[in-house]
Amino acid sequence: MVAPARARILVGERARTGGGGGGARPARAMGLDRRCASGRSGIAPRAGGHHLPRLTHPPLTPSFVIRHSSFVIRHLSFSIPLFILFLAFVLWILSRRVSDTSGLPAGRVVYSDMGNAQAWGRVERPLFSQRLQLTGKPDYLVRDGDAVIPVEVKSGRAPADGPYDSHIFQLAAYCALAAEAYGRRPSHGLIKYADKIFAVDYTPQLESELMTLLDEIRRDADSDDAHRSHDSAARCRACGFREVCGEEVRWLGG
Known about the structure:
Elements: E1 8-11, E2 43-45, E3 51-53, H1 62-102, E4 108-112, H2 117-120, E5 127-129, E6 134-136, E7 140-144, E8 147-153, H3 165-182, E9 188-192, E10 197-201, H4 204-222, H5 233-237, H6 242-245
Parallel strand pairs: 8-9
Antiparallel strand pairs: 1-10, 2-3, 4-7, 5-6, 7-8, 9-10
């Protein structure tokens, strides 16, 4: 079987930034060290010879309220739209921060399988293809315009030579499921490692290789004589069937 096409790096490791020498300097007290000359100075004494301003208000009489009501109403009507605009700006900043933190491309998250339903919304059921007899649940489906892009998140660092073939085929399977579920073939999918994000083009060649692999899996599943297909002790160590396989690769100390 032909090895899947290599992925292109979409986002590299972010440059770390360090702060300059010295922290923020406290602001100097301004005009608060004058001593009181009398009780009517409006400055209250404070321990150590420093003083803080004492705020005083005129008596709140009906005539004062009537005289200043138009001023208050005029400024309130001006402040409420500004507050709403400021709130919308804060929400936009927070949404961008969530997107930047997760490493997702700009777009609406369709659903997530990251175990944080409160942050991302309700987790929906896995995708299923009756034609392929295949089911799967990508970590994210991101809607970008009319396209739906599957995203697979890996906790480890990116391999030096690009994504593993198994990761590419896993993403290709999600692309096939998304194409059938949403009626539009995704042009690519994303594999996000801890330090890099790779875009994997969902080409006709990759789709053909995926179908060949699925046929091999079905054949092995129906066969009573399936054999180990690799020589990696690490893969055997992580396999849940190693106790009953009979062909597991032994490793040092194992």
